[in-house]
From TrEMBL:
Keywords: Hydrolase. Coiled coil: none annotated. It comes from the Bacteria. Transmembrane segments: none annotated. It comes from Variovorax paradoxus. This is Beta-lactamase-related domain-containing protein. Residues 58-374 form the Beta-lactamase-related domain.
Length: 617
């Protein structure tokens, strides 16, 4: 696997970054760095006398050192005051400019909270209704599936629309791309839905990008300007804006992934484009705590805030992960780590190609946390969760921190032959998973970089009906049938390890009766190079991206794109999406269209164009 390959781990990482906001907890990364020598107490930082600040300061420093992170900033509101506000590391490592509390960070998909808030403001104004089909506001909105006419604003804001996932073209760049939302809508016109609206909820950035188009149509104002006038200025969020133009050097945290880069511009404004400070984000959180009021001024109705914080997943037809209670704009309105302590938290994760953030609002406890950093490797999700729990303990809202879940497997199941019908290939967007039995034990392998790689082996069936790892990691798997579709579902310790989290990893795919046509077979084995990405796109920073078109021997009839996603041929020039996997592993799916332009065959994929460059390595 080469550094410029659009396959295997590189593609998975890029698509995760393009989606940016995983609903499953992010696992802290590994890596080196010289951050231990760069820890700075920022100008204007709080004295840190609160116990949570004393604990959190050391935890952040350790996480930065482990993850090779250049800068982190945090702010915590608790019980009527800012109890901690501090920045660590370097805004500009090369120029030796320390990060401060006024340093801007790209907060990624935390921006989705503002998109949902914008919709609620428009509803307050009588311009929009959550359950009205989007085509009534955007008559020109088209897709190849008739179901697109049933997509509502609520579907867009709760990841239940059925849109493919993420329009990745120029989403992260080192220069502004203000035409991103229009290009995304145009690409959708030649794409099918991956599931019926409201059938399931799977993380979908394109839904929030379409909110930009709705705002423009209803108000005549571009989304960034609407947010500035309706939200940022009334809240006094003076250090917050979208990346429409370069910021002044020294005012923002530079991206860092072992090397410092220029300012990152996020083109998907509603889905992930806000740059802000934790201090500013506390103002947003305080308004939500105030049920739409901030310092005597109403920003949005109390009913609107309550609706954002209401579980939107109750009516889904496919939902094997009930602990993910998705709100409007929120990843979870009953975040499991805080719920384990008996409290309620609204939580949103955010990431870009370089930045990762967590935003918490605890509506019953007068608490807001914003934690953000300039890399992906410092374990932001468990770190933020621990800070919130520590703050609850400091205020004696919870007497003790929750203990770790028991990871010892239950007793072995009674002697019985395994159900061999569950063996086979499970598709998703990260790479197929093969489930196979050897001597009554379950082996799971994922296709990665052109070969099957062990995930978990020798899993034993236990009395709870799950196949457990015997390594003590607490991982367990089961096979669940919903609406005639069989899913491989994983359960594991979540966050800081004190609760369980479940999520489907893939949907079982049967072999196709029809063999691949001669037209498709002539393309199998070829490599295709991304041709219409801007040279200043972040995805191009290590050279042109390439994707192979192949097959998987164990599953006849399908095509494999970019060594990870299995597609079903629809005809000799189009291949479509195959799985309906909720939460995260069915996100960012692909539809391929073969066309010939000026005598050259190319693949069009959700707005990106790939040209054939040779045979696969």
């Amino acid at each position: 696997m080469t550094s410029n390959s659009f396959q295997g781990l590189n593609r998975r990482r890029y698509l995760q970054r393009a989606g940016a906001t995983l609903l499953a907890p992010i696992v802290a990364g590994c890596g080196g760095g010289d951050n231990a020598t760069a820890m700075q107490l920022s100008p204007g930082a709080s004295a840190g006398v609160a116990p949570v600040a004393e604990w959190g300061r050391e935890a952040i420093k350790a996480a930065m050192a482990d993850g090779g992170t250049s800068a982190v900033s945090v702010a915590l509101w608790s019980d009527g005051e800012v109890v901690w506000q501090e920045a660590f590391g370097w805004a500009d490592r090369e120029a030796r400019i320390a990060a401060g509390t006024q340093t801007r960070f790209n907060v990624g998909s935390v921006s989705k909270v503002l998109a949902a808030l914008s919709a609620m403001i428009l509803q307050d104004r009588g311009l929009l209704s959550l359950d009205t089909p989007v085509v009534q506001y955007l008559p020109e909105f088209r897709m190849l599936s008739d179901g697109h006419r049933r997509i509502t604003v609520r579907h867009l804001l709760s990841h239940a629309s059925g849109l493919p996932g993420t329009h990745i073209r120029n989403v992260f760049a080192f220069a502004p791309h203000t035409d991103y939302a229009a290009n995304a809508e145009a690409a959708l016109a030649d794409t099918h839905l991956k599931h019926e609206p409201g059938e399931l909820s799977v993380y979908c950035n394109d839904g929030f990008t379409m909110i930009e188009r709705v705002v423009l149509k209803l108000t005549g104002t571009r989304y960034p300007e609407f947010v500035r006038a309706a939200i940022l200025e009334p809240l006094g969020m003076t250090q917050s804006s979208f990346t429409l133009a370069p910021f002044a050097e020294g005012s923002f945290a530079h991206p860092y992934d072992g090397k410092q880069w220029k300012q990152e511009f996020v083109s998907a404004y509603a889905t992930g484009g806000l740059a802000s400070t934790p201090g500013d984000m506390l103002r947003l959180g305080r308004m939500l705590l105030g049920a739409g009021m901030f310092e005597g001024r109403r920003i949005v109705s109390a009913a609107g805030v309550a609706e954002m914080g209401r579980n939107q997943t109750a009516k889904l037809l496919i939902n094997p992960s009930p602990e993910y209670q998705i709100g409007l704009g929120w990843d979870n309105v009953r975040q499991s780590g805080v719920l384990a302590a008996g409290q309620t938290a609204w939580q949103k994760n955010g990431g870009t190609a370089f930045f990762s953030s967590e935003f918490y609002v605890l509506p019953e406890n007068d608490m807001v946390l914003m934690l953000t950093g300039s890399s992906l490797g410092y374990g932001v999700a468990p770190l933020a969760e621990k800070i919130v729990l520590q703050a609850l303990k400091d205020r004696r809202i919870v007497p003790t921190l929750p203990g770790a879940v028991g990871r010892a497997p239950p007793a072995l199941a009674a002697e019985a032959a395994p159900d061999t019908a569950v063996a086979g290939i499970y598709g998703n967007y990260l790479g197929p998973i093969r489930a196979a039995f050897v001597a009554g034990r379950l082996n799971l392998h994922r296709w990665k970089a052109g070969a099957w790689t062990a995930m978990h082996e020798r899993l034993a069936l236990r009395s709870d009906g799950r196949w457990w790892s015997e390594t003590g990691d607490g991982f367990a798997f089961e096979f669940v049938v919903l609406r005639g579709m069989r899913y491989l579902v994983q359960r594991r310790p979540g966050g800081a390890g004190h609760y369980w989290t479940t999520a489907p990893l893939g949907q079982q795919l049967p072999p196709l009766e029809a063999p691949l046509s001669a037209a498709w077979l002539a393309r199998v084995g070829a490599t295709w190079e991304l041709a219409n990405e801007s040279p200043d796109s972040a995805v191009m920073r290590n050279g042109p991206m390439r994707a192979p078109l192949g097959v998987l021997a164990e599953l006849p009839g399908y095509l494999m794109w970019a060594d990870s996603e299995l597609l079903r041929p629809l005809d000799d020039t189009r291949a479509g999406m195959t799985v309906k996997v909720s939460v995260n592993d069915g996100r960012d799916l692909t539809e391929l269209v073969l066309e010939t332009v000026d005598g050259v065959e190319q693949i069009r994929s959700n707005g990106s164009i790939f040209r054939r460059v040779g045979t696969a390595a």
